[in-house]
Amino acid sequence: MTWNVYLSGEIHTNWREELESGAKAAGLPVSFSAPVTNHPASDDCGVAILGEEPNKFWHDNKGANINAIRTRTLIEKADVVVVRFGEKYKQWNAAFDAGYASALGKAVIIMHGADHQHALKEVDAAALAVTETPAQVVDILRYVINGELKGY
Fold it and tell me: Which CATH number covers residue 7?
């Protein structure tokens, strides 16, 4: 079986690449998907495809709705959803993705630093695991997929 893992959240660091290379190095049978991580394209897809909007609300609404087609479809197909909250920006969309995945009964793994612990306590409570690094996510995937635990 190939496990489908959706990588949601922060787009300003290379955490996705770290996780993907770690899973590949571990030989895990996983397939990764993610939202569009080109920030300007994600923000402007609605008006680029459907036409300009003079009101910023409708500009954002068009983009959010088109992005939701991808996000919802890939989360629904995922076996595991990993949601990363970065240090620099508040990722409200990531919190929504975590809630959506949880409501669908998906296995959710949250990743963030200690400084977000209080702000994300409800999100963390809905997750099956809370991690700080891509390496920890790889270790979780290795364990749940192959039953292998380092050092045992």
Answer: 3.40.50.450
